[in-house]
Each structure stands twice: as C-alpha cells, then as structure tokens.
Amino acid sequence: MYQSTSINLKEKKTKEIIDDKNLDDKNLEENEMTMEEIHSLQDAEFEKIYNSLFSFEKYISKISSYIYGPIIFILRLTGIYFVWITLHYAASHVYVQYCVPGTIFGFLISPFLVTTPHCQALRWLISTAADTITKMWLFIGAWICSNILMANVNNGATKNE
After folding, report:
1. Ranges of each domain in the chain
2. Under DSSP, is residue 17 helix (H, G, I), strand (E, B) or coil?
3. What angle do CA 111, 115, 116 make, to 5 degrees?
4. Between helices 117-160 and 35-98, what is the axis angle to 10°?
C-alpha cells in the first residue's frame, strides 16, 4: 500500500509538471508577437519620439524669434561702441608713431609734423572717439539709473496696493 501511494504521488507530480509545461507553451504562444506587430510598435514609438523632438524644435524656434531681435539690437549698439574704441586705440598709437616720435630728432621736428594733414586727421579722430566713448558711458549710466528708479517706483506702487 505504501508503494502504491508513492506511485500515485509520482504520477500526480508528473501530470502536474506536464500540465504546467503545456500551460507555459500555451502562454508562450499567446505572448509571441509577429514581426509586423513588433514593427508597428517600433514605428509608433519612433513617431512619438519624432513628434516630441519636432515640438521641441518648434519651441526653440519660437523662443529664438523673440530673442533674435534684441540680440541683434544689442550687437549693433556694442558693435558701434567697439568700433569707436578700436578707432581711438589705433589712432592714438599711429599718432605717437608718426606725429611725435620718441627720439630727440622727433622732439625737434614735432612742431612741423603737428601741422601735417595726417596728424591733424589723427588728432581729430582721437578727440572725436574720446568724446563719443564718454557720451556712450553717460548714456549707459543714465539708462541703468532710470531702470533702477523705475524698478523702485514699480515696487513702491505694488507695496501701496
């Protein structure tokens, strides 16, 4: 009797294992995807990624359209400022080189060189560039002060409300 019970248990376990294997095979067959289904899923994922990148590109182009104008304006203003600085720097060095040489002979001929057209033009350029740079600094300082004052006025108005 003991043997028959153990044989029955072995048979039961064997049947359970076989049944489990059959269930696993059925589950695998149900879970298997065809290549077309895989490609369609990949295409859907690719489309999601592409659309998100495209919307990001739209967002960046929208932002750049708002930023482009002020950047060009600032570059033009600073470009003018740097042109005047460069002209002043170069004219100062050229004037020293050609109109007031640093030798004893240069000292002796400087009264004659000062009246030459190229020295007069360089002196005018140095003077005009220096005046322009001074006016630009005054303009920048006034703009900064007005922005600070307007910020204080705006903050005072919101505090009173």
Report:
1. 52-155
2. helix
3. 120
4. 130
